[in-house]
């Protein structure tokens, strides 16, 4: 019998990935993934950028590179962070990663020992929960409302909980809830963090996908003590298959992350980073993002209206200002895992909400994604889910 490492006891198959395997059939309308719409990928433009890289610097692109990543792209990211998020930073404080998921893994390795405490929003991103579980921490969930994490509850947690080593948040269009923190809460959060001096991961994969309302500055832009590690990615504004994301952090943190990366992967793809850098030089990425926003804005409005039309009044749900998700809460006696299995019989899929709570429970919630479905699929799919919910009401 093979004796595996103890940490493998904490490694479970992702519920979302398992469910996605069931939704690959063409007849299934899937609201389960968090995938960008593939018809919006800039295939021809990216091909031109790749060709240019190979023609101009092919031997460099196909060679090993530095651990922190292609310097010109890091410089472009630093400029974009200031333009879009009011973050004043430099290329030396940017490190490229293979998707934000790798950044989450590195944070867990850097800060967490078994038994340490991670503080998260309740609910929170399943991928972050799984990444941190490898370090065997304890999770403390902070209650949320329609404006995200409740700061009075965070204050209580920090005042009464020992050994808090890390705080993980998604202030913009949160996965899974779709909620966004208003400016006042951002200021309150940074005031609290400055007092307790606890490292924070600000995960912002969806920040540029705002459809309505006003953009808010990133938490990192208000970070005067170098406590915030900002995670960004090209997955949602260009294409996830490039696996190019980044971490923006203090000199000390970036140095430590480089040591971890040297042991884990040596570096992120040189060619992928150079191709994105060349794309940013050759094409108007802001025009491309504007196109994405319009499509997702429309699909979000179609889904929210369909939920208003077809969900029973016992169901509450979010109306997001951006991002890829809406979140629904049903009467507590309804188990959405059982509901999901029933909906799959009608070829409609969604993600049950319990996996987004690190300590379990909350079996009555669901996450719905609208980015990859047509209007007809959204309306018909939501109607089917609404019919199944009604059959399960008491």
SSE pattern, N- to C-terminal: HEHHEHEHEEHEHEEEHHHEEHEEEH
**Shape category:** globular
Structural class: alpha/beta
Across the major sheet, the strand order is: 2-9-8-7-6-3-4-5
Estimated share of beta-strand residues = 5-15%
Find the count of extended strands (DSSP E, 2+ residues): 14
Number of helices: 12
Radius of gyration: 21 Å
- Average pLDDT: 95
| Largest pleated sheet | 8 strands, mixed
Give a written overview of the molecule.
By secondary structure, the protein is of the alpha/beta class. The chain has helices at residues 15-22, 43-61, 71-85, 100-111, 126-133, 151-160, 183-196, 251-264, 270-282, 285-310, 336-344, 375-391, and strands at residues 29-30, 94-97, 117-122, 138-145, 148-149, 164-169, 200-203, 228-233, 245-248, 316-317, 325-329, 348-349, 351-352, 365-369. The strands form three sheets. An eight-stranded mixed sheet has the order 2-9-8-7-6-3-4-5, with helices on both faces. It has a four-stranded antiparallel sheet with strand order 10-11-14-13. Strands 1-12 form a two-stranded parallel sheet. The longest helix has 26 residues, at 285-310.
